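ok so i was messing around last nite and threw this chain in just to see what happens. nothing serious, just curious
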Amino acid sequence: MKEITLSKEKQFFSPYACRSDQTKGRLRAEEPCPMRTEFQRDRDRIIYSKSFRRLKNKTQVFFSPEGDHYMTRLTHTLDVAQVARSIARCLDLNEDLCEAIALGHDLGHTPFGHTGERVLEKLNPNGFSHNKQSLRVVDFLENDGMGLNLTLEVRDGIVEHRKSGNPITLEGKVVSLSDRIAYMNHDIDDAVRAGIFKETDLPDKVVKVLGKTTSERINNMIYSILRSSQGKNDVTMEKDVADASDELRNFLFDTVYKTLATQEEEKRAHEMISALYGYLKKNLDKLPAFYKGLLKDFGEDTVVSDYISSMTDRYAVYTFESIFIPKNFLIY
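result:
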């Protein structure tokens, strides 16, 4: 069965695609699966990981939203995977590799979205970024400290998915662009739903180039990538679409992300993460057994960051309450 898939890849893939039998391998050698390609195995390992399941209760942008239709880190991840697969299919690239990278790209994200990331980056002397933490999750933290032992191509795509990254495969570049396409457009939907602005408030250039609606913008961004990248050893947007996308991103930073950072809920999340970090640094014996076991190989700041970043929003709230609020004061 796997041989049929590999044969199709050789026959139909772009010469610039990363074929499954060309992987540079894993950190630890393993017997190949008779049914699945290496990238299919990576996708399955990510889907069945604890970190992936926790994404459903982690904030994307809006902390503790009122309503069921706001994006979570999990729905964002699935959105990225869908966009990436669509692009990969049209460019004759490796869909399985794209999907594996997309599903794993945010596994290391903190509770409370980028608020949690900013707090840990400030408090940890070694710094903190969710893309590097995602790689740490799949390399060391998952599977009771054994990691998922993913292929180099998937690991590279995960750590290099940010706008400033430089993935070694075209599939990694597809996911990086897909991440931006996904978060910009669903963040617009969430911001409109929250009453922060109206779709008619979007910059004129953005509307003229990308479109008025979510579906128009996503389609135009994808079509631009296809026109610009077909038959080439690169994956890019056309300049006018890339410029409009950058303007849209700047608009969201000014009207949504910076605005949310000043709101009371975000301030509370900031204070909560800071308090948890300070308490755990002084009380390392309160760490769960798994994380205490990491202290012999990694520094205190790294391990405390590991534990906090693994938390879902509600578990972070529960942990904070159990530490700092007297039990008699908790009324549910």
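not much to say yet. The chain is about 60% helix and 0% strand.
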